[in-house]
Each structure stands twice: as structure tokens, then as C-alpha cells.
Amino acid sequence: MQIRRATKNLVILFGFVACVVLASPPAFAAYPDRIIRIVVPFAPGGGTDVIARTLAQEMARDLGASIIIENKPGAGTIIGTQSVAASAPDGYTLLMGTFANAVNPSLSAKLPYDAHKDFAAVALIARSFNLVVVNPASPIKSIADLIAVAKAEPNRLSYGTYGTGTSAHLAGELFKHMAKVNLTTVPYKGAAPAITDLLGGQIQVIFTTVASAASLVAAGQLRAIAVTSAERSPAFPELPTVSEAGVPGYAAEAWYGLYAPAKTPPEVIDLLNKSAAKAVQSEAFKKLGVNEGLVMVAEPPEALDRYFSVEEARWRKVIQDAGIKIE
To answer: 20 to 30 A from 69, CA-CA: which of 78, 106, 181, 224?
Structure first.
């Protein structure tokens, strides 16, 4: 009798526990309950840093959590990227990925992470483009002019870059390949010294970022002759794309995507993706879009995966054809 009663009590107890477990929200429902870090693999103050800080501010407001930026520059973004790959897959350490993530696998013989297997895409935040700029005193006033001069005088024209494998570098290499012209590559440590030499006549053209050149173009100190994006930009509606101006099919974009370590719970990825989508609709991002020449995206994780694969394949061919390597 006592055994039967004990058994009955155990059945009731187990049933109660099961109900509690089933009624309890899953563990991720508490997310986020501590500080989230977004690792920026660049020094503070650059375009990626500004975009990440704006994103953190807007997402923190939406999620009701603290989000901080951790700058980890070095080795062409590899140091900061590796730190995220090695982090716990719990949604509390994220990476602001860029154009560099798609080109590093082709530039470096051995990376300390797998660009595909070690990360989970969260959201493609935005796409950007470069401006093709020349000295306003230059006789080059269009892409057609640039091609004509480069073909007439194959060894005269040079273009400035600021970092092996950067968008400014590879946009120029892609142009050389597709336009079938020769431009001498002149490396600089940043956009500012390259622009100084452009103004001084030491180089003839730069495929530079909007942030570094827009104010100088507006002031008449530089002449913009095209945008490198596939479509015209609302920020520079008067400028043709390189493609429509004489190099059909040309497109070179910079981009910004949010990543988490691989095996981060899908529910956390989904929450972060929705929060990022809200963030890019904010007034702060609209203002940033004008200043940085951004096209806001915030598409689902699968879209970032597809975009990354296309970018990686495109730039691998350019890098291999040009024989570019990180020294």
C-alpha cells in the first residue's frame, strides 16, 4: 500500500516537473542579459568603426542591453576576426565584417580561422562604393578619357592605394583588368597622403572611399568622374557608374556585415537580425548613409552568406590574376 502511494506521488511529482519544464521559456528568452561586444578589426575613427558604433547604439536601444565596441586592429583585420572565431557561440561577441573578410582568404596562404565554417551570418548591414577621383586641373574628365590616356601612354598614369587588398586597391586592379589598361600602383599608408599626392600631381587617379573624398569633391578640390557601384548612387546622381561610362559589367563595392561565432543558437541570430533591420531604418543611419555613401540593406543571414560567396569568388580571380600577396 505504501509502495503504491509512493509510486503515485512520484508520478505526480514527475508530471509537475514536466509541466514546469514545458511551461518555462527556453534559455535564449533571457538573451541578452549582459553586455554584448561588437569587435571592429580596425582602429577607432574609421568608417567601419563609425558604422559599428551607430549600429550598437540603435540595437542597444531596441534590445534593452548594453552593446560596446571593441577595436582590435592588426594583420589586415585577421587579429580581430580570429578573436571572434574563438569566442563562445552565445551571441555576446559579434564581428563587424567587411570587404576584407572576403578577400583575406585569397591574400593569405593560411588564415587562423575558416571564413565559412567558423562564423554564422547575422545580417548584411550596408553596401557602399568608391569614387573615381582625379585632380580638377587634369584633362581627364570621364572614364572614357582615363581609358584613352592610359592606352595612348601606357606607362604614364598611376593610381594611389592605401593598403594591400583594400577596396581602393582592388577596385583599381579590377579596372585595369576589365578596361585592359596599365596603371602603375602607388601604395600609401592612408587616404590622406594619397589625396595630397593626387592634388600635387604625383599620381593621376584614386578609387577612394566616399568618406575620404566627398567634402573635397563638393569644394571643387577633387573631380569625381564615376562611382564604382553597379547602380548610380542617390548621393551622387549626376555621376555615372564605371560600367555605364565605358567598362561594361564593372562593379566594386565595400560592404559591412554582422557575424557571430559558428554554432550560435538560431533563435539568437534571428533576434539580432531583426534588431539590426530596425537599426538601419533609424534617423542616425539615414544621416550616416548620406555621409558615408551607404546603401542600407539589413537582409536575412542567408543573403549575407550568398553575397559573401559571390564577393569571395570575384576578388579571388582579381587577386590571382594580378599576383597580389600580403608581404
So the answer is: 106
